[in-house]
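Bumping with the actual sequence this time:
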Amino acid sequence: MHFEKIDDYLKRNKISLQGGGQDKIKDQHEKGKLTARERIDLLLDSGTFTEIDPLATHHYHEYDMQKKKFYTDGVVGGYGTINNKNIFVFAYDFTVLGGTLSHMGAKKITKLMKHAIKTGCPIIGIMDSGGARIQEGIMSLDGFADIFYHNQLASGIIPQITASIGPSAGGSVYSPAMTDFVIMVEKTATMFVTGPDVVKTVLGEDILSDDLGGAMTHGIKSGVAHFVTKNEYECMDYIKKLLSYLPQNNTEEPPKIKTDDDPNRLDHNIINIIPSNPLQPYDMKEIIHSIADDHKFFEVHELFAPNIIIGYSRLNGKVVGIVANQPLHLAGALDIDSSNKAARFIRFCDAFNIPIITLVDTPGYMPGSNQEHNGIIRHGSKLLYAYCEATVPRITLVIGKAYGGAYIAMGSKNLRTDINYAWPIARCAVLGAEAAIKIMYRKELSDSNDPESLKKQLISEYSEKFENPYVAASHGTIDNVINPAETRPMLIKALEMLVNKREKQLPRKHGNINL
């Protein structure tokens, strides 16, 4: 009798491993896609995956659904390790009814999310879904709502990462958007609230699926995708690399590693990265690579709003989040997209105990009716809010220009940044010298017999009185003007000084950031 029960168990277990069946698995492979189980095996340390709810099924009979019952019910999930660290994972299984979400599928996902929150482990979702299961009606929508609620519960408690590898439509796009990082695979991943057919019907607009919501569209235009990868294998590598910089949860510090890179290493060539002509662009990433351990920088959101750079490095083995203006794009000016991009990154770093290094070279906020009409005031304020709210160690270095509101927004002293440095070539002021002179001395310049000569004289005087970093240093808003060659050791010393920083805030339910 016992043997029969064991045989029955083995049979059911074997069936559950087949998903929607061999034909559906073959179809998935012919599309150039891995199955849900293959993806999990690729991501996790070998042999560590333990499945939860492998025998779950739906319980509906309408539309002949009793003939379409499959174990796992379209979601494979459980726990295991990545580089020996515990994680939870779920993957939509496209071989089962197109990966549509059922009430039971949602129940499985939220069960894993609850476990992840209680145990303080990151959770990874792998998307390949046709959206809500129509045959289940509103119960499928209720399932999505439950997932969204648990995304909110997990936010700021554990890292949440989404790998978008197939289609995601309707409700299945909002949960990824609520997670901390979204990685999309080129040519196979799509995300949209309504697909091309609905767009055609409602608006009469012809658009291809990839153009509407493909990986590059979301990487460059919408900013939904933090990373775009060439294939599923690269996608999994990105997740592993990302996790190597993150703590398990908000009560832990990010992982520190030993490094052979001398914390006192000098770079006498770093100043030569900056052109002598302040109007000439340069690549801020060269400076980031110069100061980072082993010259390594893991960039986030590289394709979106490239006028600001965000990402992770290590300084003397300790993880830091880096926010930096990028003079190669829009001269490093702040606009709507860059403000949103940097603000969310700062808030993530703050939630997960990651110190923030800010490198400044910006002429200001982007002018123009397009920016004003689309809400640069509202969106730009998010950057201010994020810096003001952050309590992790924060260090700001002004490298070049720091003008106007952008000087304030990029981690200035009065936003409660801990340490503010500047290079000798830094220029901090309400306006650049030339623009300021044109406003303050308009009449004198128009009345002058030699306006160009007078202009040069006035610019020189203004720069000496207001722009140079020693003026800011005399007021204590710059803690020190430092030798560019000593940037790395000075940042590391400041981080070591701030290692035990504690900052209390007044009790409140939450602030009201201008979303």
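The tokens above came from a reply further down the thread. The chain has three domains: 2-177, 270-426+468-497, 432-467.
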